[in-house]
Design brief:
Blueprint: H1 3-7, E1 11-14, E2 28-29, H2 31-39, E3 43-54, E4 59-68, H3 82-88, E5 105-109, E6 124-128, H4 129-135, H5 156-164
Parallel strand pairs: 1-4
Antiparallel strand pairs: 1-2, 3-4, 5-6
Length: 188
């Protein structure tokens, strides 16, 4: 098997309840980490690729979906990070409403730090550079801007739901039964 082919075979990682550990970024392991976890009996193989790896004594199809054998508790309170702020705000500037890639967003203190504003879920929003520069160290209304949504501390369910709106570029067909992006379901 070629290295390039193997690199294109990540495994979707599910918790013991068969739900993805995360949607954004999607919980994926490299094929090497996946095989190691299989041999250490930490995961169950749920689905496999057609691609096979060989060792001198073993031949094994690469797993495409694995489930952890032990349930991993997901923290109820997400960590405050720049990326999670962007995910909470759906990668939209909270002043003009335009959507951007994470690398083209900044975060802005609604109440500026120089006016006593804190770096917290309740005071930080995603902002595009032009709006952030326009606001500067002023209060929102003094800068002639309006806040689209009041900032708040999200829970993991909210971040997961927001992450489902942004599916990655590549989804293997064996993953579809475990991922619930906005897809039409068949009614029987």
């Amino acid at each position: 098997m070629s290295t390039a082919l193997a690199q294109s075979c990540p495994a979707l990682v599910l918790n013991a309840d068969f739900r993805p550990l995360s949607y954004f970024p999607l919980s994926l392991w490299s094929w090497q980490d996946t095989i190691k976890a299989v041999f250490m009996s930490r995961v169950s193989v749920v689905s496999e690729y057609d691609t096979v790896v060989h060792s001198p004594s073993i031949e094994m199809p690469l797993p495409s979906v694995i489930a952890l054998k032990d349930y991993v508790n997901v923290s109820r309170k997400p960590v405050f990070t720049r990326f999670n702020v962007f995910l909470r705000d759906k990668f939209e500037c909270q002043y003009c409403g335009s959507r951007y890639n994470a690398e083209n967003l900044t975060f802005d203190h609604v109440v500026p730090r120089c006016r006593g504003g804190r770096t917290s879920w309740q005071n930080v929003v995603a902002a595009c550079s032009p709006c952030n520069l326009r606001k500067g160290d002023k209060m929102v209304h003094k800068a002639g801007l309006k806040l689209l949504k009041k900032p708040h501390q999200p829970n993991n369910f909210e971040l997961q739901a927001n992450g489902r709106v942004f599916p990655p570029n590549y989804l293997h067909e064996s993953w579809h039964d475990f991922l619930y992006w906005d897809s039409e379901l068949e009614i029987s």
